[in-house]
Amino acid sequence: MRRALVTGVTGQDGSYLAELLLGKGYEVWGLVRRSSGAGAARLAHLAPDQRARLRLVEGDMTDPSSLRKAVREARPDEVYNLAAQSHVRVSFDLPEHTAAVTGLGALHLLEALREGGHRPRYYQASSSEQFGRAREAPQRESTPFAPCSPYAVAKVFAHETTVSYREAYGLHASTGILFNHESPRRGEAFVTRKITRAAARIRRGLQRELLLGDLDARRDWGFAGDYVDAMWRMLQQDAPGDYVVATGVTHSVRDVLDRAFGRVGLDWSHHVQLDPRFRRPVEVAALVGDATKARAALGWAPTVDFAGLIDMMVDHDLALADAEARGGTPPPPAPEPA
Ligand code: NAP
Ligand code: GDD
Protein backbone atom coordinates (compact mmCIF):
# COMPACT_ATOMS: atom_id res chain seq x y z
CA MET A 1 0.00 0.00 0.00
CA ARG A 2 1.44 3.38 -0.99
CA ARG A 3 1.78 5.91 1.83
CA ALA A 4 1.39 9.69 1.58
CA LEU A 5 2.09 12.36 4.19
CA VAL A 6 -0.10 15.45 3.78
CA THR A 7 0.54 18.64 5.72
CA GLY A 8 -2.47 20.96 5.88
CA VAL A 9 -4.78 17.93 5.71
CA THR A 10 -7.50 19.82 7.62
CA GLY A 11 -7.57 22.60 5.00
CA GLN A 12 -9.71 22.83 1.88
CA ASP A 13 -7.15 21.18 -0.41
CA GLY A 14 -5.94 18.74 2.23
CA SER A 15 -9.41 17.29 2.63
CA TYR A 16 -9.93 16.87 -1.14
CA LEU A 17 -6.45 15.42 -1.58
CA ALA A 18 -6.90 12.97 1.31
CA GLU A 19 -10.15 11.84 -0.26
CA LEU A 20 -8.50 11.39 -3.67
CA LEU A 21 -5.55 9.43 -2.26
CA LEU A 22 -7.73 7.24 -0.04
CA GLY A 23 -9.88 6.53 -3.10
CA LYS A 24 -6.74 5.32 -4.89
CA GLY A 25 -5.95 2.94 -2.03
CA TYR A 26 -3.20 4.96 -0.29
CA GLU A 27 -2.61 5.04 3.43
CA VAL A 28 -2.73 8.75 4.23
CA TRP A 29 -0.86 10.32 7.10
CA GLY A 30 -2.13 13.82 7.88
CA LEU A 31 -0.19 16.35 9.93
CA VAL A 32 -2.56 18.15 12.31
CA ARG A 33 -2.15 20.85 14.89
CA ARG A 34 -3.64 20.57 18.35
CA SER A 35 -5.80 23.60 17.44
CA SER A 36 -7.17 22.04 14.20
CA GLY A 37 -10.71 21.70 15.60
CA ALA A 38 -12.78 23.46 12.95
CA GLY A 39 -10.74 22.16 10.03
CA ALA A 40 -11.05 18.56 11.21
CA ALA A 41 -14.74 18.80 10.27
CA ARG A 42 -13.63 18.75 6.62
CA LEU A 43 -12.61 15.10 7.09
CA ALA A 44 -15.72 14.06 9.01
CA HIS A 45 -17.60 12.73 5.97
CA LEU A 46 -15.01 10.05 5.03
CA ALA A 47 -16.38 6.51 4.71
CA PRO A 48 -15.33 4.05 7.48
CA ASP A 49 -12.96 2.09 5.20
CA GLN A 50 -11.28 5.36 4.17
CA ARG A 51 -11.15 6.63 7.77
CA ALA A 52 -9.35 3.42 8.73
CA ARG A 53 -6.51 4.30 6.33
CA LEU A 54 -6.21 7.91 7.53
CA ARG A 55 -3.61 8.36 10.28
CA LEU A 56 -3.41 11.74 11.98
CA VAL A 57 -0.09 12.75 13.46
CA GLU A 58 0.37 15.83 15.59
CA GLY A 59 2.83 18.43 14.36
CA ASP A 60 3.44 22.02 13.39
CA MET A 61 5.35 23.55 10.48
CA THR A 62 7.21 25.76 12.95
CA ASP A 63 8.46 22.75 14.94
CA PRO A 64 11.13 20.87 12.94
CA SER A 65 11.31 18.02 15.44
CA SER A 66 7.62 17.28 14.94
CA LEU A 67 8.18 17.14 11.16
CA ARG A 68 11.14 14.77 11.55
CA LYS A 69 8.99 12.54 13.75
CA ALA A 70 6.09 12.59 11.27
CA VAL A 71 8.41 11.60 8.40
CA ARG A 72 10.05 8.88 10.53
CA GLU A 73 6.70 7.37 11.53
CA ALA A 74 4.91 7.69 8.19
CA ARG A 75 7.83 6.60 5.97
CA PRO A 76 5.85 8.10 3.07
CA ASP A 77 6.28 7.42 -0.64
CA GLU A 78 4.86 10.87 -1.37
CA VAL A 79 4.78 14.08 0.67
CA TYR A 80 2.35 16.91 -0.11
CA ASN A 81 3.20 20.17 1.67
CA LEU A 82 -0.10 22.08 1.77
CA ALA A 83 0.19 23.67 5.22
CA ALA A 84 0.30 27.45 5.26
CA GLN A 85 -1.01 30.63 6.77
CA SER A 86 -2.81 31.04 3.47
CA HIS A 87 -4.75 34.32 3.78
CA VAL A 88 -3.05 37.11 1.83
CA ARG A 89 -4.47 40.11 3.73
CA VAL A 90 -3.90 38.45 7.12
CA SER A 91 -0.24 38.05 6.13
CA PHE A 92 0.14 41.83 6.37
CA ASP A 93 -0.99 41.60 10.03
CA LEU A 94 1.06 38.46 10.78
CA PRO A 95 4.13 38.78 8.54
CA GLU A 96 6.58 36.92 10.76
CA HIS A 97 4.15 34.11 11.54
CA THR A 98 3.39 33.78 7.82
CA ALA A 99 7.10 33.64 6.97
CA ALA A 100 7.67 31.00 9.68
CA VAL A 101 4.80 28.71 8.62
CA THR A 102 4.45 29.30 4.88
CA GLY A 103 8.10 29.92 4.06
CA LEU A 104 10.46 28.39 6.60
CA GLY A 105 8.04 25.51 7.25
CA ALA A 106 8.77 24.13 3.78
CA LEU A 107 12.52 24.26 4.46
CA HIS A 108 12.05 22.40 7.77
CA LEU A 109 10.10 19.69 5.94
CA LEU A 110 12.61 19.36 3.10
CA GLU A 111 15.42 19.11 5.67
CA ALA A 112 13.49 16.39 7.50
CA LEU A 113 13.29 14.46 4.22
CA ARG A 114 16.96 15.01 3.37
CA GLU A 115 18.20 14.07 6.84
CA GLY A 116 15.84 11.09 7.03
CA GLY A 117 17.63 9.49 4.12
CA HIS A 118 14.32 8.12 2.89
CA ARG A 119 13.58 9.88 -0.41
CA PRO A 120 9.85 10.29 -1.03
CA ARG A 121 8.48 12.36 -3.87
CA TYR A 122 7.62 15.89 -2.71
CA TYR A 123 4.93 18.37 -3.74
CA GLN A 124 5.13 22.07 -2.79
CA ALA A 125 1.92 24.14 -2.84
CA SER A 126 3.13 27.21 -4.71
CA SER A 127 0.77 30.05 -5.62
CA SER A 128 -0.19 32.41 -8.42
CA GLU A 129 0.27 35.18 -5.82
CA GLN A 130 3.99 34.69 -6.46
CA PHE A 131 3.44 36.48 -9.80
CA GLY A 132 2.08 39.49 -7.88
CA ARG A 133 2.30 42.56 -10.08
CA ALA A 134 2.56 40.23 -13.03
CA ARG A 135 4.90 41.17 -15.85
CA GLU A 136 2.79 39.38 -18.49
CA ALA A 137 -0.65 37.85 -18.96
CA PRO A 138 -1.47 35.03 -18.89
CA GLN A 139 1.13 33.87 -16.39
CA ARG A 140 3.09 30.70 -17.15
CA GLU A 141 5.99 28.79 -15.56
CA SER A 142 8.55 31.20 -17.07
CA THR A 143 6.81 34.40 -15.88
CA PRO A 144 9.08 36.16 -13.33
CA PHE A 145 7.87 36.31 -9.74
CA ALA A 146 7.01 39.76 -8.39
CA PRO A 147 5.50 39.03 -4.97
CA CYS A 148 3.79 41.90 -3.17
CA SER A 149 2.59 40.53 0.16
CA PRO A 150 4.32 38.77 3.06
CA TYR A 151 2.37 35.65 2.01
CA ALA A 152 3.66 35.78 -1.56
CA VAL A 153 7.23 36.44 -0.42
CA ALA A 154 7.04 33.41 1.89
CA LYS A 155 5.68 31.29 -0.97
CA VAL A 156 8.51 32.40 -3.28
CA PHE A 157 10.98 31.35 -0.57
CA ALA A 158 9.33 27.92 -0.25
CA HIS A 159 9.17 27.53 -4.05
CA GLU A 160 12.81 28.43 -4.67
CA THR A 161 13.92 26.24 -1.76
CA THR A 162 12.08 23.32 -3.33
CA VAL A 163 13.75 23.95 -6.70
CA SER A 164 17.16 24.24 -5.06
CA TYR A 165 16.71 20.97 -3.09
CA ARG A 166 15.73 19.28 -6.33
CA GLU A 167 18.88 20.54 -8.02
CA ALA A 168 21.27 20.15 -5.09
CA TYR A 169 20.15 16.78 -3.72
CA GLY A 170 18.34 15.21 -6.66
CA LEU A 171 15.02 15.06 -4.78
CA HIS A 172 11.93 14.28 -6.84
CA ALA A 173 10.45 17.63 -5.77
CA SER A 174 7.75 19.39 -7.79
CA THR A 175 5.91 22.66 -7.42
CA GLY A 176 2.34 23.39 -8.47
CA ILE A 177 1.81 27.10 -9.09
CA LEU A 178 -1.90 26.99 -8.47
CA PHE A 179 -4.32 29.78 -9.28
CA ASN A 180 -7.30 30.39 -6.97
CA HIS A 181 -9.43 27.32 -6.41
CA GLU A 182 -12.59 27.15 -4.39
CA SER A 183 -15.29 24.74 -3.25
CA PRO A 184 -18.02 24.37 -0.66
CA ARG A 185 -15.16 23.57 1.77
CA ARG A 186 -13.39 26.87 1.09
CA GLY A 187 -12.51 28.88 4.22
CA GLU A 188 -15.17 31.50 4.91
CA ALA A 189 -12.70 34.41 4.94
CA PHE A 190 -11.88 34.00 1.21
CA VAL A 191 -13.94 36.15 -1.10
CA THR A 192 -15.93 33.53 -3.07
CA ARG A 193 -17.10 31.70 0.03
CA LYS A 194 -17.71 34.94 1.92
CA ILE A 195 -20.03 35.95 -0.92
CA THR A 196 -21.82 32.60 -1.41
CA ARG A 197 -22.33 32.22 2.33
CA ALA A 198 -23.74 35.76 2.57
CA ALA A 199 -25.99 35.40 -0.48
CA ALA A 200 -27.54 32.27 1.04
CA ARG A 201 -27.93 33.77 4.52
CA ILE A 202 -29.41 37.03 3.18
CA ARG A 203 -31.85 35.01 1.07
CA ARG A 204 -32.96 33.15 4.21
CA GLY A 205 -33.22 36.33 6.28
CA LEU A 206 -30.26 35.48 8.55
CA GLN A 207 -28.07 38.43 7.49
CA ARG A 208 -28.71 41.86 6.00
CA GLU A 209 -25.48 43.12 4.51
CA LEU A 210 -22.10 42.01 3.21
CA LEU A 211 -18.92 44.04 3.71
CA LEU A 212 -16.27 43.70 1.01
CA GLY A 213 -13.01 45.30 -0.11
CA ASP A 214 -12.06 45.60 -3.78
CA LEU A 215 -14.83 44.60 -6.23
CA ASP A 216 -12.72 45.10 -9.36
CA ALA A 217 -9.99 42.57 -8.54
CA ARG A 218 -9.86 39.74 -11.08
CA ARG A 219 -8.86 36.14 -10.44
CA ASP A 220 -8.73 32.84 -12.31
CA TRP A 221 -11.06 30.72 -10.16
CA GLY A 222 -11.27 26.92 -10.50
CA PHE A 223 -12.61 23.98 -8.48
CA ALA A 224 -10.39 22.59 -5.68
CA GLY A 225 -11.31 18.97 -6.50
CA ASP A 226 -9.76 19.39 -9.95
CA TYR A 227 -6.62 21.03 -8.58
CA VAL A 228 -5.68 18.28 -6.10
CA ASP A 229 -5.85 15.83 -9.00
CA ALA A 230 -3.14 17.91 -10.72
CA MET A 231 -0.98 17.66 -7.57
CA TRP A 232 -1.19 13.87 -7.60
CA ARG A 233 -0.45 13.70 -11.32
CA MET A 234 2.75 15.74 -10.82
CA LEU A 235 4.13 13.15 -8.41
CA GLN A 236 3.39 10.29 -10.82
CA GLN A 237 5.76 11.72 -13.46
CA ASP A 238 9.18 10.15 -13.97
CA ALA A 239 10.85 13.54 -13.59
CA PRO A 240 9.93 16.34 -11.18
CA GLY A 241 8.92 19.77 -12.49
CA ASP A 242 7.07 23.04 -12.01
CA TYR A 243 3.52 23.44 -13.32
CA VAL A 244 0.99 26.26 -13.56
CA VAL A 245 -2.53 25.00 -12.82
CA ALA A 246 -5.34 27.33 -13.89
CA THR A 247 -8.51 27.53 -15.94
CA GLY A 248 -7.23 30.35 -18.18
CA VAL A 249 -10.42 32.35 -17.59
CA THR A 250 -10.55 35.45 -15.39
CA HIS A 251 -13.51 36.99 -13.55
CA SER A 252 -13.96 39.95 -11.21
CA VAL A 253 -15.29 39.94 -7.65
CA ARG A 254 -18.31 41.73 -9.16
CA ASP A 255 -18.87 38.69 -11.43
CA VAL A 256 -18.91 36.45 -8.33
CA LEU A 257 -21.53 38.75 -6.79
CA ASP A 258 -23.64 38.69 -9.96
CA ARG A 259 -23.60 34.91 -10.16
CA ALA A 260 -24.10 34.15 -6.46
CA PHE A 261 -26.85 36.69 -5.77
CA GLY A 262 -28.45 35.91 -9.14
CA ARG A 263 -28.63 32.25 -8.09
CA VAL A 264 -30.76 33.20 -5.06
CA GLY A 265 -32.80 35.83 -6.95
CA LEU A 266 -31.38 38.93 -5.21
CA ASP A 267 -29.75 42.16 -6.39
CA TRP A 268 -26.40 42.36 -4.60
CA SER A 269 -26.19 46.15 -4.90
CA HIS A 270 -28.92 46.39 -2.23
CA HIS A 271 -26.79 44.44 0.26
CA VAL A 272 -23.08 45.03 -0.39
CA GLN A 273 -21.14 47.79 1.36
CA LEU A 274 -17.52 48.66 0.68
CA ASP A 275 -15.30 48.49 3.75
CA PRO A 276 -11.66 49.60 3.51
CA ARG A 277 -10.71 47.14 6.26
CA PHE A 278 -11.01 44.35 3.69
CA ARG A 279 -8.62 45.99 1.24
CA ARG A 280 -4.94 45.08 1.18
CA PRO A 281 -2.05 47.57 1.54
CA VAL A 282 -1.04 46.39 -1.94
CA GLU A 283 -3.62 44.76 -4.21
CA VAL A 284 -2.86 42.19 -6.90
CA ALA A 285 -5.29 43.54 -9.49
CA ALA A 286 -5.54 40.63 -11.90
CA LEU A 287 -4.24 37.10 -12.35
CA VAL A 288 -4.90 34.61 -15.13
CA GLY A 289 -2.94 31.43 -15.79
CA ASP A 290 -1.74 29.48 -18.80
CA ALA A 291 -1.84 25.76 -17.92
CA THR A 292 -0.64 24.53 -21.33
CA LYS A 293 2.23 22.57 -19.76
CA ALA A 294 0.00 20.82 -17.19
CA ARG A 295 -2.57 19.98 -19.85
CA ALA A 296 0.05 18.49 -22.17
CA ALA A 297 2.39 16.77 -19.71
CA LEU A 298 -0.08 15.68 -17.03
CA GLY A 299 -3.17 15.18 -19.17
CA TRP A 300 -4.93 17.51 -16.71
CA ALA A 301 -7.97 19.68 -17.49
CA PRO A 302 -10.49 21.50 -15.30
CA THR A 303 -13.96 19.93 -15.15
CA VAL A 304 -15.93 22.72 -13.47
CA ASP A 305 -16.39 26.19 -14.95
CA PHE A 306 -16.90 29.47 -13.08
CA ALA A 307 -20.71 29.39 -13.16
CA GLY A 308 -20.81 25.74 -12.08
CA LEU A 309 -18.39 26.45 -9.25
CA ILE A 310 -20.30 29.40 -7.80
CA ASP A 311 -23.64 27.61 -8.17
CA MET A 312 -22.23 24.56 -6.36
CA MET A 313 -21.07 26.78 -3.49
CA VAL A 314 -24.32 28.75 -3.24
CA ASP A 315 -26.41 25.57 -3.21
CA HIS A 316 -24.28 24.13 -0.42
CA ASP A 317 -24.54 27.36 1.54
CA LEU A 318 -28.33 27.49 1.09
CA ALA A 319 -28.51 24.07 2.75
CA LEU A 320 -26.31 25.35 5.60
CA ALA A 321 -28.50 28.44 5.97
CA ASP A 322 -31.60 26.25 6.09
CA ALA A 323 -30.06 24.15 8.85
CA GLU A 324 -29.09 27.31 10.70
CA ALA A 325 -32.60 28.75 10.37
CA ARG A 326 -34.15 25.50 11.62
CA GLY A 327 -32.08 24.87 14.70
CA GLY A 328 -29.27 27.32 15.11
CA THR A 329 -26.77 24.81 13.70
CA PRO A 330 -24.31 25.14 12.13
CA PRO A 331 -23.34 28.45 13.68
CA PRO A 332 -23.09 31.56 11.53
CA PRO A 333 -19.72 32.07 9.81
CA ALA A 334 -16.91 33.53 11.85
CA PRO A 335 -16.37 37.13 10.72
CA GLU A 336 -13.30 37.70 8.55
CA PRO A 337 -10.71 39.33 10.82
CA ALA A 338 -10.36 43.00 9.88
P1 NAP B 1 -6.34 26.38 3.93
O1 NAP B 1 -7.74 25.87 3.77
O2 NAP B 1 -6.11 27.69 4.58
O3 NAP B 1 -5.55 25.25 4.76
C1 NAP B 1 -4.30 25.52 5.35
C2 NAP B 1 -3.87 24.30 6.13
O4 NAP B 1 -2.60 24.58 6.73
C3 NAP B 1 -4.82 23.90 7.28
O5 NAP B 1 -4.90 22.51 7.36
C4 NAP B 1 -4.09 24.44 8.51
O6 NAP B 1 -4.37 23.73 9.68
C5 NAP B 1 -2.64 24.19 8.10
N1 NAP B 1 -1.70 24.96 8.90
C6 NAP B 1 -1.70 26.31 9.10
N2 NAP B 1 -0.67 26.66 9.91
C7 NAP B 1 -0.03 25.49 10.22
C8 NAP B 1 1.09 25.19 11.03
N3 NAP B 1 1.77 26.15 11.70
N4 NAP B 1 1.49 23.90 11.12
C9 NAP B 1 0.80 22.91 10.49
N5 NAP B 1 -0.29 23.14 9.72
C10 NAP B 1 -0.68 24.41 9.59
O7 NAP B 1 -5.58 26.40 2.53
P2 NAP B 1 -5.98 25.72 1.14
O8 NAP B 1 -6.86 26.65 0.40
O9 NAP B 1 -6.39 24.33 1.40
O10 NAP B 1 -4.58 25.75 0.39
C11 NAP B 1 -3.64 24.68 0.53
C12 NAP B 1 -2.25 25.18 0.19
O11 NAP B 1 -2.23 25.63 -1.15
C13 NAP B 1 -1.76 26.35 1.03
O12 NAP B 1 -0.37 26.21 1.17
C14 NAP B 1 -2.08 27.57 0.19
O13 NAP B 1 -1.22 28.63 0.51
C15 NAP B 1 -1.82 27.01 -1.19
N6 NAP B 1 -2.57 27.60 -2.29
C16 NAP B 1 -3.93 27.69 -2.21
C17 NAP B 1 -4.65 28.21 -3.28
C18 NAP B 1 -6.14 28.32 -3.23
O14 NAP B 1 -6.71 29.05 -4.05
N7 NAP B 1 -6.83 27.61 -2.35
C19 NAP B 1 -3.96 28.64 -4.42
C20 NAP B 1 -2.57 28.51 -4.47
C21 NAP B 1 -1.88 27.97 -3.41
P3 NAP B 1 -5.51 24.17 10.76
O15 NAP B 1 -6.74 23.42 10.35
O16 NAP B 1 -4.91 23.71 12.05
O17 NAP B 1 -5.64 25.65 10.68
N1 GDD C 1 -10.78 37.82 1.39
C1 GDD C 1 -11.40 38.87 0.83
N2 GDD C 1 -12.37 39.54 1.56
N3 GDD C 1 -11.04 39.26 -0.41
C2 GDD C 1 -11.70 40.32 -0.95
C3 GDD C 1 -12.70 41.01 -0.26
C4 GDD C 1 -13.04 40.60 1.06
O1 GDD C 1 -13.91 41.17 1.72
N4 GDD C 1 -13.17 42.00 -1.07
C5 GDD C 1 -12.50 41.93 -2.21
N5 GDD C 1 -11.58 40.91 -2.15
C6 GDD C 1 -10.62 40.59 -3.20
C7 GDD C 1 -9.18 40.51 -2.69
O2 GDD C 1 -8.66 41.82 -2.51
C8 GDD C 1 -8.53 39.72 -3.82
O3 GDD C 1 -8.21 40.59 -4.88
C9 GDD C 1 -9.66 38.79 -4.29
O4 GDD C 1 -10.87 39.30 -3.73
C10 GDD C 1 -9.46 37.34 -3.84
O5 GDD C 1 -9.22 37.36 -2.44
P1 GDD C 1 -9.15 35.98 -1.60
O6 GDD C 1 -10.36 35.18 -1.86
O7 GDD C 1 -8.83 36.34 -0.19
O8 GDD C 1 -7.97 35.18 -2.30
P2 GDD C 1 -6.49 35.65 -2.74
O9 GDD C 1 -6.46 35.72 -4.23
O10 GDD C 1 -6.02 36.82 -1.99
O11 GDD C 1 -5.62 34.41 -2.22
C11 GDD C 1 -6.07 33.07 -2.45
O12 GDD C 1 -5.58 32.60 -3.69
C12 GDD C 1 -4.15 32.52 -3.78
C13 GDD C 1 -3.80 32.03 -5.18
O13 GDD C 1 -3.72 33.13 -6.04
C14 GDD C 1 -5.56 32.22 -1.28
O14 GDD C 1 -6.16 30.93 -1.35
C15 GDD C 1 -4.06 32.06 -1.32
O15 GDD C 1 -3.66 31.13 -0.31
C16 GDD C 1 -3.66 31.55 -2.70
O16 GDD C 1 -2.26 31.40 -2.79
Could you walk me through the main structural features you see in this protein, from its secondary elements to its overall organization?
The protein has 338 residues and is an alpha/beta fold. It has 2 domains: 3-181 and 223-245, NAD(P)-binding Rossmann-like Domain (Rossmann fold, 3-Layer(aba) Sandwich), CATH 3.40.50.720; 183-219 and 249-287 and 305-327, Alpha-Beta Complex (UDP-galactose 4-epimerase, domain 1). 43% of the residues lie in helices and 15% in strands. The chain contains 12 helices and 13 strands. The protein has a 7-stranded parallel β-sheet, sandwiched between helices. Helix 1 (12-23) links the parallel strand 1 and strand 2. The model has no long low-confidence stretch (mean pLDDT 96). The structure holds NADP nicotinamide-adenine-dinucleotide phosphate and guanosine-5'-diphosphate-alpha-D-mannose. NADP nicotinamide-adenine-dinucleotide phosphate (NAP) is lined by residues 7-8, 10-14, 31, 33, 35-36, 39, 60-62, 82-86, 101, 125, 127, 178, 180-181, 187.
Q: Count of DSSP helices?
A: 12
Report the mean per-residue pLDDT as an integer: 96
Structural class label: alpha/beta
Small molecules in complex: NADP nicotinamide-adenine-dinucleotide phosphate, guanosine-5'-diphosphate-alpha-D-mannose
Under CATH at level 1, the class of the largest domain stands as Alpha Beta
Layout of secondary structure:
Blueprint: E1 3-7, H1 12-23, E2 27-32, H2 37-40, H3 48-51, E3 54-58, H4 64-74, E4 78-81, H5 88-93, H6 95-116, E5 121-127, H7 150-169, E6 173-178, E7 181-182, H8 191-203, E8 210-212, E9 218-219, E10 222-223, H9 224-235, E11 242-245, E12 251-252, H10 253-263, E13 272-274, H11 292-298, H12 306-327
Parallel strand pairs: 1-2, 1-4, 2-3, 4-5, 5-6, 6-11, 7-10, 8-13
Antiparallel strand pairs: 9-12
Helix pairs in contact: 1-9, 4-6, 6-7, 8-10, 8-12, 10-12
Bound molecules: NADP nicotinamide-adenine-dinucleotide phosphate and guanosine-5'-diphosphate-alpha-D-mannose.
